[in-house]
């Protein structure tokens, strides 16, 4: 089960008490932070996200509304005496920016900061045993990346009664979960299907960052349980959206429909919209199971 | 007359809804922004500071709580279509940081950004005809600078009745204000004191940024109308303050007293203090005319 808390849902200029992009994806005992616009550390405190659980941060691209809050968070971690390693997945150019900012402050972090530059293309960038994270390119004005978070599940689930009945030792459980048969001490083979059942697939959350309308992205998150897609503009500004490499409400709905995802949340709202109801209506007209990515709301997947 | 609005009064880590350092000094039709911690653009909106009046920004030093909000403000100016030049006075190293951040975003500002690197020592860095700004070094962990804002006034004030009586042409007024005598068309000399009176001295505001207790600073702002001095810690943490190149409540009061300023405001409060009354009491015990630099409050000078 994932919990996705929206920390910022506005596009570039903060307005109407909406903040630039940031999301906290909670899974097991970890918080995976996705983008980190200015003020994210304040939003983290406001919505009681546990900082100590943040060990992995993913930055989609280097427009300021997606990363200007990162150096502040990194510095605060330092001032709070953090010692646990922090993993940062971001466009390569970010490393030099952060390093310069730490150098001029004579700031030596008391914890290891591991920088993972985004690879090109569709690749897995993290597998911590609980979650797999894939990166994929989106189409924006500058290099931009989306992420797919995939709950890591073994293909098979153990039938407790069966393993006890046949005295299968616990050390073999993981191999059972991977589908192996078990050969007992007496030489008899117990086929896997006696000891396990097919597992439910892991939950999936796709974050498409900033992007022009691009149905070719759908292949990266087909059937995902939750999709976040930007809706900077309403449908009447489709042309403007395309010029600025952004998407509209209707387009977000179309991507969700094409990719056959189960649920859609929208965000990255232009500061021209004070009220957001109309954006939701337009999106729902195309894809019913849509919601506004309201700040502070946690979506359970 | 100056108006000084405190936009952020906390030290490094934002806490208790207090923000990192920023101040807006309003004078005539201009807003002079002093430091720009993370979230300053939001504070500017909250306290209705007119962005279009901000043409000069002063950064004291490159610890993040004094400048992490600058790139966001600069970017927002850009998105809002600003065309007026912006003057930035800051430690030299900031230029490269900003340039890198703009380069990776393919951001070309639609307005001229003039970068003025702080000189060494005590020097005048701005004289726009209305205000003179002096920079001076403070003693902090890294290079740090304070600023003195001085209302520009001519030494003499014109006596309207006198200049009319003696038919002094208006083009000569400025020279009268500077103390010159006037030689009339008939060759007679009118001594300056017949046409002018001594002007009141211009108002002065001194901002000492982050600094260890250092009475040698007093020479830069003797007799100022208002002094801002940091009070990161209370008096019992004098040793810790010195180790971290910060000051205490009592020390701020002592600086105000030694420099014979008229009024003191304190700020840069450590996140260890939720309530601030005790800090004010300690400061007032040394220098009576002291106030807390509460966010959103405008001090009239």
At a glance:
Chain A is α/β, with parallel strands linked by helices and about 300 residues long. Helices cover about 25% and strands about 30% of the residues of chain A. In chain A, helix 8 packs parallel to helix 9.
Topology diagram in text:
The structure is a homodimer of 301-residue chains.
Chain A: E1 2-8, E2 22-27, E3 30-36, H1 40-46, E4 54-58, H2 70-79, E5 86-90, H3 94-104, E6 113-117, E7 123-127, E8 131-138, E9 144-151, E10 156-158, H4 160-165, H5 173-177, E11 182-183, E12 189-190, H6 192-195, E13 196-198, E14 204-207, E15 226-230, H7 238-243, H8 249-258, E16 264-267, H9 277-286, E17 290-292, E18 298-300
Rg of chain A: 22 Å
> How many individual helices of chain A?
9
**Largest interface, and how many residues on either side?**
A-B, 33 and 33 residues
What helical percentage do the residues of chain A reach? 10-25%
Structural class of chain A: alpha/beta
Order of strands, main sheet of chain A, comes to 6-5-4-3-2-1-18
Detail the poorly predicted runs of chain A: none
| Main sheet properties of chain A | 7 strands, mixed
Multimerization state: homodimer
Average pLDDT of chain A: 95
Number of strands of chain A: 18
Give a structural overview.
The structure is a homodimer of 301-residue chains. Chain A is α/β, with parallel strands linked by helices and 301 residues long. Helices cover 23% and strands 28% of the residues of chain A. Chain A has a 7-stranded mixed β-sheet. Chain A has a 7-stranded mixed β-sheet with strand order 7-8-9-14-15-16-17, with helices on one face. A two-stranded antiparallel ribbon of chain A has the order 10-13. In chain A, strand 3, helix 1 and strand 4 form a beta-alpha-beta unit. In chain A, helix 8 runs parallel beside helix 9. Chain A is globular, with a radius of gyration of 22 Å.
């Amino acid at each position: 089960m994932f919990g996705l808390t929206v920390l910022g849902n506005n596009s570039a200029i903060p307005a109407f008490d909406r903040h630039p992009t940031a999301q906290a994806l909670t899974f097991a005992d970890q918080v995976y932070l996705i983008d980190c616009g200015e003020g994210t550390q304040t939003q983290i405190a406001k919505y009681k996200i546990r900082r100590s659980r943040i060990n992995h941060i993913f930055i989609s691209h280097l427009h300021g509304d997606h990363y200007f809050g990162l150096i502040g968070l990194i510095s605060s971690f330092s001032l709070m005496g953090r010692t646990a390693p922090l993993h940062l997945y971001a466009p390569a150019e970010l490393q030099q920016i952060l390093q310069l900012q730490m150098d001029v402050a004579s700031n030596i972090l008391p914890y290891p900061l591991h920088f993972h530059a985004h690879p090109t293309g569709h690749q897995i960038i993290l597998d911590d045993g609980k979650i797999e994270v894939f990166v994929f390119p989106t189409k924006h004005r500058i290099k931009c990346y989306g992420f797919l978070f995939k709950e890591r599940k073994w293909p098979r689930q153990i039938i407790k009664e069966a393993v006890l009945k046949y005295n299968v030792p616990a050390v073999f459980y993981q191999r059972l979960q991977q589908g192996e048969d078990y050969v007992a001490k007496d030489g008899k083979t117990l086929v896997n299907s006696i000891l396990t059942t097919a597992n439910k697939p892991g939950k999936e959350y796709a974050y498409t960052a900033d992007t022009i309308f691009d149905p070719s992205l759908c292949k990266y998150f087909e059937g995902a349980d939750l999709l976040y897609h930007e809706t900077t503009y309403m449908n009447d500004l489709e042309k403007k959206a395309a010029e600025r490499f952004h998407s509209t409400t209707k387009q977000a709905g179309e991507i969700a429909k094409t990719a056959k995802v189960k649920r859609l949340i929208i965000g990255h709202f232009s500061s021209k919209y004070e009220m957001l109801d109309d954006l939701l209506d337009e999106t729902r007209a195309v894809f019913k199971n849509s919601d506004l990515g309201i700040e502070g709301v946690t979506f359970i997947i």
